[in-house]
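name: query_chain
kind: protein
chains: 1
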Amino acid sequence: MSLLETLAGKGLRREPPTRDEALAVLATSDDDILDVVAAAGRVRRHWFGRRVKLNYLVNLKSGLCPEDCSYCSQRLGSKADVLKYTWLKPEEAADAAAAGMAAGAKRVCLVASGRGPTDRDVERVADTIAAIKERGDVEICACLGLLGDGQGERLAEAGAHAYNHNLNTSEGVYGDICTTHDFSDRQDTVQKSKDAGLSPCSGLIAGMGETDEDLVDVAFALRDLGVDSVPVNFLIPFDGTPLAERWALTPQRCLRILAMVRFVHPDVEVRLAGGREIHLRSLQPLALHVVNSIFLGDYLTSEGQAGKADLEMIEDLGFEVEGADTPSMPEHRRAETVSVRRRGAGTALPPNA
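structure:
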């Protein structure tokens, strides 16, 4: 049996590939790219049909971040010519969110630059969530940086559905892209979001100079954390950042990375995220045979493909936008999302401490 037949079969059974198999996907040739997409597409269609989930970003606070992540246009010392502003008012954010919701977005992602939120910032976001939910039924994902104790619980209480905090790259090379926090800080925030009852969303950025081994490492690290959605970003090399000249990706390379992530996460939402337009270019439609989720329109500090073009691409493929009433996750994963406490206070078992 061929590698791709083996991986498709494993994906249909919810079995992850071995590390060597995941590496072999990244090592396939450009001549085999349609076969790679077809195998990953079998897994995608098995668990998610022909649905495409739309996500819409609202940048609540832009620029002037004290962290030094080398890929980021908002980083400490960035000379990138991006928008810089402090917190949007709740109604301003709700107006922005409404545009995405009107175009079919099922999830609104509220993002703010910075190391992490203060408790006051969390209350600002709680007010913003309330303002958005007055406009319609939509999932809210918060992305506010490193979480402190109790902050995830407050966001969940306010109506947030999910929390995003990307691992970005492998633990082994994380120190090469950031010195102001480390890989374990990011793992800790993903775990805090899970403990708070929020759906954990965490992904990666490809194209920063990482090896195939690094990509496989971060894909498996995300699996170990049990995330529900994996956004796959491709580096946007902004002028004025340390990675401004890093143009290492081809459309075929991007498709192989997406397929590898799909095989490692067969029944998890895999999202085509930042950088898709400039790196996949005319091969974007092929990527939708692998992923089941995309960002609609613009990103945090860069403009994306027009939302109308995204919707036309989905329609041309014969896919359909996932409705608000349609569960995103397969039924077995929905059942696994919440683990009811059976230990600690009120039981005869010791607490998880």
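note: The mean pLDDT is 93.
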